[in-house]
Each structure stands twice: as structure tokens, then as C-alpha cells.
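Students often ask why inverse folding is considered easier than folding. One informal answer: many sequences map to the same fold, so there is more than one right answer. In these notes we will look at a single instance of the problem. The structure comes first.
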């Protein structure tokens, strides 16, 4: 008699997620960590709007050159100061505690910025905000990726970075409304800054109402709590910790943690570069972080006032409207990429994005050069739609998947530190940009754009050679691609690699996880307890695909701890 086989897809919820109580509640909870990206976008973009306002320019005596560069880079300086410490807080205290600390620093910085009277205090306040952002942007995407439902993870982690533009939209249009209402008054810039406080206040009030990351709980030995979180929010809002999907997820989490502990008992930043697989990961992550800042997007993101002046657009109202419209367009472009991330895959999105950016930025350089050299008004008018087209291609990939791709290729033990390295690299090169861009634009004008044209060629070559596909895999399976043999670039989605085989077994039914079960229940050395905790009338074994068993006669449940992540799951009933 043939042994029936099932894939992990057989245990995934098939109906609309809003009809599933557990998923509905979970997805509502995940809005709170998404707000960290909104705050980051709001604060990062607020200066673009403030620089357009005459009231801000007059109050701070029209800052130029080094002063303007320092104002724009102060946020990055604060973030660079906090990022090296943020993964330790996330791993030691938890993702929620790190978000709370970040929100507290952010709130203090926002209030100081809104009440400041000198440019020096304004710069100091922005450093404080950046320090808070460092903790928030490390913990929030970790919590989203580790807590979200398996089939929702790709979209939620992509949506996280896309929400940056939602904050950017708020800041640009608030500045426009403030200018219309307050004119050149100092309240035209103080009110938009005060409104930034809403996000950290919400996070500080509500963060303890959402569940902690089950992977963090398991890493701390609280595996029964981790299983209850997965059961409550991944298993249709029930408390059935013996649900097949919950057992599968817990087995993968435990197995990954055991393997990682064998490799590095006390992870540090050096662990991120300790093995060939980790070095390959860091090379890709740091390169993408650099590309996210050095693709030409920084010219508009922080100096749209100068760029539009260079294109012949000088009216304040027109500049503010273009800035506001661009942010809405950016969000729509990023959301389109988010919706296609699981359909097209990560590699195709990167290729489309880099090819499009190279073509459009070359055209943008040409129109800017024509306007500067000949004064052509036609060229000036063509620059604005080209800016929009450029950001469409940039946002199509680099906004939605730069964070999610980083999280997908990192194993748990270096996930927080790897994300911190990505964030540190982004802020480091962004800070460099904010200093260099205004000086370069003043010194050589449109010729500076040629540097970015050459750089975009290098980016395209890198993506073609080094980016591999991660679509259709769990976090643990994706991270395993980099360990062992060299991963193929065009690795496709696994449709049937995770297999459940039902094999007869005679034994007692396993007990349910109740509130009085100790937190080290899943880590108990007894094989009988371990097997009952891993199964629903069964136990789970992770096996190499080449060693899948079609009948009985395999080892004990402890065999789980010695298998590869490139695995199948065997249910023995």
C-alpha cells in the first residue's frame, strides 16, 4: 500500500486571511511594528519639506554648504551611533523591548527638535531621533519576519520598508498645508515636527499588547510559550499546540537554533564573517545597502530643492506640490513591487529595477545637461517626469525587498547583527552622500550625475552575478542556501521539497501543552517527551531529501538535531 505524502502547503490556511481569527488579529498587531518604518520615513523626509519652507529658512538663517550637510546627516550620525548596540538589545531583551527603547529616544528627540531655538540644538535633536530609530528599525523588521504567517512573511517584510514612503507622504503634505496656513511663521515648521510625536507615543503605549517573536522565545528556552504563540496566531486562533503546522514550525526553529549553536556558541559581529556562507551573505547585504543609497536617489531624497532649482523650477508652491506628489507615486510604486515579490521573485525584481534605473537616469542626466548648457525649457520640463520614472524603478525593488531579502538570507543567530550591519552600511553611505552631494552639485553641477550613471552599470552587473532567488522558502530554508555548496543564482521556488509521510506507529497520544507545562518542555532530554512535543499523534524528523524514508525503520526523534535544513519533514503516525 502506497504511503501518502503531503507538503507543507497542505497545512497552510487556504481561505481569506480575514476570515481566520488568529491571522486577522496577528495582522492587525503587525501594524504597530510597521509604524517604525513610517516614523523613519516621516523623519527622514521632514527636512526636504522644511527646506522648502521660507519660515524654516529664515529662522535658521538660510543654512548652506557644510551647515546644511550637517543638518541633513545628523539623523544618520545618531543612527550610526546606536546601530552597533541595537542587535544586542534585540537579542537580550527581546524585539518588543528594543522597539520601546527606540520609541522613547525618538519621542525625546522630536520634542527637543520642535522646541529648539538654535541650529545647534536642532542638529542635536536630530542625532537623538536617529539614535532612537537605530533600535526601532532593528527590532521591528525582526519581529515582523519572525512572527508573521509563513505565506504572509514575504509581503509583510516587503511592506515594512515600503511604509517609509507613507511617512514621507505625511511629512511632505503636512509641510505644504502648514505653509498655506502659517506662511512664513515659525509655526509653519514647528507644527509638522510636533506631529512626528504621534508614532512613538502609539508604540510606547501599545507595544506590550502584541506577542513576542516565537524564535526569540525559543532561543531563550521558552519553547512552550513560543509554541503557544504560534498556535494562537498561526493555527486558526486556537490553543492547539499539537497542530501540524505549529509542530512543523517549532521543529524547524529548534533545529536551526541547534545547528547555529554548534557553529557559534556566543555569536558576535565576527560570527557574521566566520564562515564562507556568512561572508557571502555579508558581501551581498553590504553591497545592496550601498546600492540603496548610491543609485542617484539621494539627489532627490535629501536635496530636491537644489535639484529642482537646477531644473529651472523655483516657485515654493510648485516645489512642495512636486515633492508631495512624488512621495505618493513612490508609495504606489513600492506597493506594486510588494504585491509582485512572491509572483516574480526577488531576483527578477532587482533586474527590472536596475535596468530601468540605468536607462532613465541616463535620460535624466541628458535633460539636466541640456538645460544647464543651453537653457532649454523643454529639457527642464522633461526632467520632472524622468525623476518620477526613475523612482518608479528604484521603488519597484529596492524599497520593498532590501530589508526582506536581508532577513531571508540570514540564519537566526546572526539575523539581528546582520540586519544591524545592513542598517549601519546604509546610514554610513547615506551620511557620506548628504555631505558630498551638495558640495559636488555646487562644484561640478550636472557632470556629477555622470558618476551615478557609471555606478548604476556596476550595480546591474552585481545583481546579474550575485543575487539568488529565495522565493517560496521558510526563513530557515532560505538561510541554509548559503551553507554548503555554492547556491545557484536562479534557484527556483520549492513546490514539493517539504514532504510529510505518514508512517504507522504505536504509542500513546501526546499531551497538549497546558499553562502549567514548564518553559523547558521542548528542550527536555527525554526522547519520549521530545517526541510528543513535536507531533500530533506523531513525531517529526528532518531528513535530507535524498534520504526520505517511504516506510518505517528510521531513528529516534533525536535524529532531528543532526539533519540539514535542506530537508523534508516526516510525520510518523
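Output (designed amino acids):
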Amino acid at each position: 500500500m502506497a504511503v501518502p505524502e503531503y507538503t507543507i502547503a497542505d497545512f497552510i490556511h487556504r481561505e481569506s486571511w480575514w476570515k481566520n481569527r488568529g491571522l486577522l488579529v496577528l495582522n492587525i498587531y503587525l501594524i504597530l511594528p510597521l509604524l517604525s518604518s513610517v516614523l523613519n520615513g516621516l523623519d527622514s523626509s521632514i527636512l526636504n519639506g522644511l527646506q522648502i519652507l521660507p519660515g524654516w529658512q529664515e529662522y535658521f538663517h538660510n543654512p548652506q554648504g557644510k551647515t546644511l550637510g550637517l543638518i541633513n546627516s545628523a539623523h544618520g550620525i545618531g543612527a550610526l551611533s546606536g546601530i552597533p548596540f541595537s542587535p544586542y538589545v534585540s537579542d537580550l531583551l527581546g524585539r518588543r523591548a528594543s522597539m520601546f527603547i527606540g520609541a522613547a529616544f525618538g519621542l525625546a528627540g522630536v520634542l527637543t527638535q520642535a522646541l529648539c531655538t538654535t541650529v545647534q540644538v536642532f542638529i542635536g535633536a536630530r542625532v537623538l531621533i536617529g539614535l532612537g530609530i537605530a533600535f526601532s528599525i532593528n527590532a521591528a523588521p525582526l519581529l515582523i519576519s519572525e512572527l508573521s504567517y509563513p505565506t504572509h512573511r514575504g509581503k509583510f517584510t516587503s511592506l515594512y520598508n515600503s511604509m517609509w514612503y507613507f511617512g514621507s507622504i505625511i511629512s511632505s503634505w503636512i509641510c505644504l498645508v502648514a505653509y498655506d496656513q502659517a506662511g512664513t511663521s515659525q509655526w509653519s515648521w514647528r507644527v509638522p515636527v510636533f506631529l512626528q510625536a504621534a508614532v512613538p507615543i502609539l508604540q510606547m503605549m501599545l507595544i506590550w499588547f502584541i506577542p513576542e517573536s516565537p524564535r526569540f522565545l525559543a532561543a531563550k528556552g521558552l519553547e512552550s510559550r513560543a509554541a503557544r504563540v504560534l498556535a494562537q496566531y498561526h493555527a486558526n486562533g486556537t490553543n492547539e499546540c499539537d497542530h501540524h503546522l505549529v509542530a512543523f514550525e517549532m521543529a524547524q526553529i529548534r533545529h536551526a537554533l541547534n545547528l547555529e549553536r554548534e557553529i557559534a556558541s556566543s555569536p558576535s559581529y565576527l560570527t557574521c564573517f566566520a564562515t564562507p556562507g556568512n561572508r557571502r551573505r555579508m558581501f551581498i547585504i553590504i553591497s545592496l545597502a550601498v546600492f540603496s543609497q548610491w543609485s542617484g536617489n539621494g539627489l532627490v531624497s535629501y536635496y530636491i530643492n537644489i535639484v529642482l532649482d537646477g531644473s529651472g523650477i523655483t516657485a515654493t508652491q510648485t516645489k512642495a506640490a512636486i515633492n508631495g506628489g512624488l512621495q505618493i507615486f513612490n508609495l504606489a510604486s513600492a506597493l506594486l513591487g510588494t504585491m509582485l515579490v512572491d509572483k516574480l521573485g526577488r531576483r527578477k525584481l532587482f533586474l527590472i529595477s536596475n535596468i530601468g534605473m540605468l536607462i532613465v537616469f541616463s535620460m535624466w542626466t541628458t535633460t539636466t545637461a541640456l538645460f544647464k548648457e543651453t537653457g532649454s525649457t523643454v529639457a527642464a520640463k522633461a526632467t520632472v517626469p524622468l525623476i518620477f520614472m526613475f523612482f518608479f524603478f528604484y521603488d519597484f525593488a529596492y524599497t520593498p525587498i532590501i530589508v526582506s531579502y536581508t532577513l531571508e538570507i540570514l540564519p537566526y543567530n546572526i539575523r539581528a547583527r546582520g540586519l544591524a550591519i545592513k542598517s549601519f552600511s546604509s546610514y554610513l553611505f547615506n551620511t557620506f552622500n548628504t555631505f558630498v552631494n551638495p558640495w559636488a552639485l555646487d562644484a561640478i553641477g550636472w557632470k556629477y550625475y555622470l558618476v551615478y550613471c557609471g555606478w548604476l552599470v556596476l550595480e546591474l552587473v552585481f545583481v546579474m552575478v550575485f543575487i539568488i532567488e529565495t522565493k517560496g522558502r521558510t526563513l530557515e530554508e532560505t538561510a541554509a542556501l548559503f551553507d554548503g555548496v555554492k547556491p545557484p543564482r536562479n534557484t527556483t521556488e520549492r513546490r514539493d521539497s517539504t514532504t510529510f509521510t505518514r508512517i504507522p506507529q504505536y504509542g500513546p497520544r501526546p499531551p497538549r501543552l497546558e499553562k502549567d507545562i514548564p518553559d523547558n518542555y521542548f528542550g527536555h532530554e527525554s526522547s519520549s517527551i521530545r517526541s510528543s512535543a513535536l507531533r500530533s499523534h506523531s513525531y517529526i524528523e528532518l531528513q535530507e531529501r535524498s534520504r526520505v524514508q517511504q516506510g518505517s525503520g528510521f531513528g529516534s526523534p533525536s535524529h532531528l538535531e543532526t539533519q540539514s535544513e535542506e530537508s523534508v519533514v516526516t510525520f510518523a503516525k
